Amino acid sequence: MYAGLSTMPLHSRLCWSLVTMLALGILATFPTHSKAYTLANLSRLPAHKKCGAFFPRRPLVDRDLSRSQVLSGGISAISGSFLVCLGASFLQIKPVIAADEGSGDKGSPTFVTCASSSGIFRFLYPETWTSAPKLLQTHQEEVTLKSKNVLGFSAGVAVDPVRIESIQQSGSPSEVGARIVALEGKKEGVSKVELLGSAQEGDFYTFDYEVESTRGRNRFLARAIVADKKLIVFTIQIPMDAYEANEATISRMLQSLQVNETNGK
User: Fold this and answer.
1) What 3-state DSSP class applies to 192?
2) Among 20, 105, 87, which residue's Cα sits nearest to residue 49?
3) Which of 27, 75, 156, 169 is the Cys-Cys partner for 10 at CB 3.0 to 4.6 Å?
4) How many domains does the chain have?
5) Confidence of residue 131 (pLDDT cuts 50, 70, 90)
6) Measured on CA atoms in the order 159, 164, 168, 170, is the torsion positive or negative?
């Protein structure tokens, strides 16, 4: 199904997922569900259904090749792009009381769990957050959320098939981070990109960088991993002037990401 992208470098997939949530995709067909949600009525869904509406089964469509040039040369990726809010492959949502205090996002929030329909990932997010759907799904699996209280504070997970067994095969964290910064610096309207940190935490790579552009100064924090030959990238974006007040919430969300082996299912 994904043979058309078999020559794309894996770093394309990671940078694109980390920064723009736009992507290189191919046409592929998945079974559609009988129930659908529109952008207009999604906001009226009960809380336990909101996250589930993020995982429709829709055709993948190629949208943007320019975001596709960042991990290491010679490593191929196969796969798709980012977000549709039609269909209903429901996720599990479970309330969890937050441990952190004074997050800035309306004090100490209550967190809920968002788990993928395939079971490959799950993470916590403040229950006051809402969906931020786009019109086209461009990854194999994807979800994106945004804060109601802090403009520009958002988070998303993207899952794409790859050919490698581990993210370490794409290069070191600093090498991958340097390529991300180099590509971002070439984007229209971007005046400055600075890599604030990169590290390996177990099987995960983490990245922390700032982008200054005509759209303002934003900070990006991400965790990436390859499991079952799938690249899973969890990215949080926030305006620089809101980062300090929301640092506890960001840390809680990033560290909550769990990835499960599904044996290729």
Assistant:
1) strand
2) 87
3) 75
4) 1
5) confident
6) negative
Rounded to whole angstroms, what are the CA distances from 253 to 28, 114, 151? 31, 11, 17
Residue 21 corresponds to which amino acid?
A: M
Residue 211 lies in a domain: yes
CA distance 160 to 130: 23
Preceding amide of 221 cis, omega within 30: no
- Full domain range(s) for residue 114: 3-259
Contact 231, 17 (CB under 8 A): yes
For residue 189, the tally of other CB atoms under 10 A from its CB is 9
Domain annotation covers residue 264: no
φ, ψ (nearest 5 deg) of residue 53? -75, -5
Token look-up 């975001």 returns: 67
Question: Global pTM?
Answer: 0.63
Can you tell me the mean pLDDT for 241-253? 96
pLDDT tens-place string over residues 148-194: 999 999 999 999 999 999 999 999 999 988 988 898 899 999 999 99
